[in-house]
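We modelled the chain as a single entity of 372 amino acids. Its sequence is:
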Amino acid sequence: MSVLRPRPPEDPLAYDGGGWSPGPLADRLAVIRDRLVAAPGDLGLAPTMLEEYDTRRPQSRLFAILTAARRIREAVDRLVILAGGSIGPATRLLAASCCHPFRDQLPRGERGGRPRLSWLDGLAGNDVLQGLCDVVAPPGGPRADDLLDRWAIMPVALPDDPRQRQVEAILLERLSATVGGEQARLAERVVPIAAAPGDAAGLAERLGCPLRFTAEAELGSTVGVFTAGGLLPAAVAGIDVVHLLKGAAAMLRRFAEAPLAENPAVVDGAIASEAARSGRAAGRLFVGAEAWVATLGDWHAAVRPTAPGVATLVTRIGSGEPRRDPIIDPPPAEPATIGLPRVDEHAIGQLLQLLILSAAVERELLRYSSAA
């Protein structure tokens, strides 16, 4: 048997703009595109992380994320992600699109020895929180220290949310009881993620957590999905985050090089901007045959919030190949606004970066219109 692993495909996604052309917007869009390419800021996070990983791997952020993911996989059978903002929807989206659709219901062996994922945020209701506690820390005190009963918490510090801090305190109390109150064992089961050292209210320092990411400056931005907040849970679940970042980097190159009328992010941003300025559609609805498409909408609503009650720009998501071997006939063919070559990490990375860039183009167009 060959020890060489096949190279994952890297086909570009297709985008149908319905015959859109830049027309009188051409010069303005070219200026916006060139400015974003020359000074991408957070938008260039994916290629920056890949370059770090390629040139100084042991010191890179991606290496630290992959190392932490391996240690979490070996230590616990469930990771509870406590995150508001766009991070919760981002990690749900990656798991929904890139993992087995019922992965958490499979035995650990059939999950490849990878932990289950659970999500909470400051909006979690009493019954949801109690229900999760019933699963991870049932009444009656700590269980035997069996791997299948071990769990960890990944608290993500975004703009201070008192309710999320309360949920965090309750989870820490339950986790402490699970490990018999031992400080060292508790510290090993908590993985704080923060934009700056002080944002986690000293949690990492107070507990002495050996795994921590407290300098994730881009955490609360549109590219938060490409920080440890998004990539660490994905890597824990077995998602190929390197290939995901390569897909995002490929879309960024396409944004820089493709002609305006054939540039998915430029076209998408212009269409969204025109819809918003006309009052026809400021929101966004993603539709498609797979359940994860609805999760894409949750993430995008957090990345590009809109006022409630607005009309919606409908965007169809199609895919050339399912993630699993086909066992039923595909649905009737229909034009897809965004067509993924297949559902895998590279294609999802392209899709996320496309929508992040589109939102940036739309913001610039709307800002220009407001100033005119």
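As a brief sanity check on the tokenised model: The longest strand covers residues 312-319. The two ends are 65 Å apart (CA to CA).
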